[in-house]
Specification:
- This protein has 2 domains: 6-119 and 310-323, ATPase, nucleotide binding domain (Nucleotidyltransferase, domain 5); 131-305, Nucleotidyltransferase, domain 5.
- Helix content is 40%, strand content 20%.
- It is built from 12 helices and 13 strands.
- The strands form 3 sheets. A 5-stranded mixed sheet has the order 3-2-1-4-8, with helices on both faces. A 5-stranded mixed sheet has the order 11-10-9-12-13, with helices on both faces. The chain has a 3-stranded antiparallel sheet with strand order 5-6-7.
- The protein starts with 5 loop residues before the first strand and ends with a helix.
- Bound molecules: zinc ion.
- Zinc ion binds at residues 166, 177, 179, 181, 184, 186.
Length: 325
Amino acid sequence: MSGKKYLVGVDLGGTWVRVVLSDFPGHFVEKANEKVDKTRSEAVSAQLIRLVRFLCKKHGVDVRALRGVSIASAGPLDMERGILVNPPNLPFDSVMLTEPVKEALGVPACLVNDCAAAALGETTFGAARGIENFVYITISTGIGGGAIVNGTLLLGKDGNGHEVGHFVIDYQGRLTCGCGRRGHWEAYCSGRNMPNYVRMRFEEIGPKTVRTSALYKQLGGDLSQLCAADLFNAARRRDKLPLMLVAEIGVLNAIGFANATNAYDPSLITVGGTVTLKNVKAVLAPIRKHVSDYAINRVPEIKVTSLGENVGVYGAVAAALKYLS
Ligand SMILES: [Zn+2]
């Protein structure tokens, strides 16, 4: 395998880390997935380094010959210093990533917001190839986005220029976001926070009606155990209240998409993330129906990502091709 060029892309999530050894121009050679080691802050970079070494050894690639390691992670991040700053999905104040990787492996490393990387991945390998104005949105544990405007990936001063999940969609701020602020899109519609929205609405609707819901009965009245999948599954069974709440969440999502449409004026938005990929119709249909109620700009085409759950790791590889080669 000597003579070929290789790089490594990493998709670091709140639960899983996906690492891929890729050749040029971006064909995956081998992937490895593990649960993120959250025992201590330093364990995260140590895990990445171990996985990079493992993949290289398996394929006879000299680690020092790698063009680099590109890490895509949920923000907030400091792109310049290569660290995560108060990451909501990891129990640490900060996580150093690029320096330990550079030091241990002796190769260049970069850190990019995972959704910004996903936007690059979609324009490099996926449905947005050749599209100059494009937005990627993930609806997953959290909500995030990446925007390409006139062919340029928007980054911002620290690399956090597209925190669409923290767009305000409820000026009354009824629910508090993981970031501590109120009224953010992610506080209502992300996989982690959707149950908070359901509990709030159930309180508003009142126990008399709520107790008639099959979802309420299925949970034995214990709404603390509710998860987003329960809500979507109940709606699929045509349970009346969950159907109504999925429709309401769809309108809130449409407001988020309208904000992104108004801010970035894309001709295409692709959507990924576990919540989307597992409930494509239930998530996308209300967005397509209601986005024009809130968008002043011409409504873009809205479709599911063509890269599925690999969009993040494709994004990391695309970021490596852009920043490290
Ligand atoms: Zn927030």
